[in-house]
Design a protein that fits this description.
Strand order of the largest sheet: 4-2-3-5-10-9-8-7
Shape: globular
Order of helices and strands: EHEEHEEEEEEEH
Strand content: 35-45%
Number of domains: 1
Helix content: 10-25%
Number of helices: 3
Largest sheet: 8 strands, antiparallel
Distance between the termini: 21 Å
Length: 186
């Protein structure tokens, strides 16, 4: 099994991710790309939807920088800019080449990114985290510059949630999202 290292010492954040509160968002009801991601990675993955934060970007990448996709990254933002897709086909192709990734889903984001969710078949470890119990499971938790990071091992890989709370949200909302993810993947 490949290993990815999750470090959060300032700029040393090498591998992080996040997710939402697990409720259905009508803007993201059609997650056909979730099946494509599962097929490509070779694992049955669950991508939670958020009532408050739409999914604005989802892509596949290789944790070691190659062409073997073993990781999906999903971004959730405060809102959408109203467009179905923000990038033209040529821009998407350029983005994929520049980021060595395969774009699955993209919509114009409005506001700040709130959640970054990563699922990887590589093993993720934390250098500075502490074990906490959420939803009856032990998960690794770190806080770095007011961002809450959670590492959730599952049978087929690891989910990593990075939650960037706003003025009206905080650790409780982050842990509710993580608990919903654990409930769906346990």
């Amino acid at each position: 099994m490949k290993k990815a290292i999750f470090l959060t010492a300032g700029a040393g954040l090498l591998f992080a991710a996040g997710c939402g509160d697990g409720n259905v968002n009508p803007d993201d009801e059609d997650l056909e790309w979730e099946d494509e991601a599962s097929d490509e990675i070779g694992a049955d993955i669950y991508i939670p939807e958020s009532e408050n934060y739409p999914i604005t970007l989802a892509y596949l990448e290789d944790s070691e920088g190659g062409d073997d996709h073993d990781t999906i990254v999903v971004h959730y933002h405060e809102g959408l800019d109203g467009g179905e897709e923000a990038m033209a086909e040529e821009a998407q192709e350029a983005w994929e080449e520049e980021n060595n990734a395969h774009l699955l889903h993209e919509r114009g984001a409005d506001g700040d990114q709130v959640i970054d969710l990563t699922f990887t078949t590589a093993e993720a470890v934390s250098s500075e985290g502490e074990e906490v119990e959420i939803g009856g499971e032990e998960v690794m938790r770190e806080e770095d510059d007011d961002v809450f990071h959670y590492i959730i091992p599952v049978e087929e890989g690891t989910y990593i949630v990075s939650y960037m709370p706003g003025p009206d949200t905080g650790e409780e909302e982050a842990e509710n999202f993580v608990e919903d993810l654990i409930d769906e993947t346990s």
